[in-house]
Design goal:
- By secondary structure, the protein is of the alpha+beta class.
- It is built from 13 helices and 19 strands.
- Among the domains are: 104 residues, Uridine Diphospho-n-acetylenolpyruvylglucosamine Reductase, domain 3, CATH 3.30.465.10; 89 residues, Alpha-Beta Plaits, CATH 3.30.70; 74 residues, Alpha-Beta Plaits (2-Layer Sandwich), CATH 3.30.70.
- The protein has a 5-stranded antiparallel beta sheet with strand order 5-6-10-8-9. A 4-stranded mixed beta sheet has the order 1-2-4-3, with helices on one face. Strands 13-14-12-15 form a 4-stranded antiparallel beta sheet, sandwiched between helices.
Amino acid sequence: MRKGEGGPAMIEPGDEAELAEAVAAARGPLRIRGGGTRPLGSPVAGEVLSTARLAGITLYEPGALTLVARAGTPLAEVEAALAAEGQRLPFEPIDHRGLLGTSGAPTIGGVVAANASGPRRIAVGAARDFLIGVRFVDGEGRVVKNGGRVMKNVTGYDLVKLMAGSWGTLGVLSEVSFKVLPAAAASATLTLRGLADAEAVRALAAALTSPFEVTGAAHDPGAAGGPATLIRIEGFESSVAYRADRLARRLAPFGPAEVERDPAANAAIWAAVRDVRALHGLPGDVWRFSVKPGEGPALAARLGARRLLYDWGGGLVWALAAPGEDLRARMGAIGGHGTLVRAGPESRGRIPAFHPEPPALAALAAGLRRKFDPRGILNPGLMDEVAPAGSVPA
């Protein structure tokens, strides 16, 4: 096992056995770190436990559409291996680096821990929907695996679903398994110009409820040249051409649709939506709201944000706010939840990063953490409603 030299102390296990040993031997809180590119949540105090050396694809069977990789494997390595076989991670994981101003390499374990999903989620599902297996170390240093030995006190839980989006608070991932899908042979992006937010969401709803299999539906009210409403179609080339033409006709009441068919241009358009490029480099806090698509524009009107971006047909609203501004408090009767994604230390110490849970759900979540991490050493406080005093950024 390797410890960081110079700077903050860091534990860097080289395999799962060393990871289990490190957790079992811990005498205080641990800050779980993958690539260090997604420092969301309340600040966590503790020694850094890095999974960066737990890297490598351990099994890839293109014919079975299955990939298994250690948690610290760079996401780019996974995507390159899949691309070489004409396949991809269907859920299009967001890269937070530009939005958060972080460096390093996102890891596949970090994708799972954050349940990081992009524009295609609206058509195919989230990261957790393609996760078919996990191996992890619990808070007492025991190795747990999906489909193998399951601890007595967690029998009956779906370990795969629990670990996706748990942010390292239930266990430290050591290996993940995914179902993958073939990459699309062709794509097209339809762009409608100049629509107000509410009208844009109606256009997106019309596209998503059409029979033309839309895989991306976003609206950028602050796009260069005016508001841009974006709709993506993917598949075989002849099918994409047919569906794009028919969909453009269906959307004619909203205005003429520009159709982009160049693969590189389409990839750039949707990478910008996926990574919320519209908010990169702009000063202020960044919020992420998940609501019913039809309520997106009403929420945006309440927020009074400096800059907005809609994804998932209007159901995902990214908002830029002044530092320290609690946009969650402005949701009112609108259902859904808001997450403080980017903020300075003062905001992070005062405003809960994650949406407060209803009492019954909060009690269930706390009970799960006690089962998996009875000592309370794995990312303690990261998902709490208030940041613990004296803590430091993760």
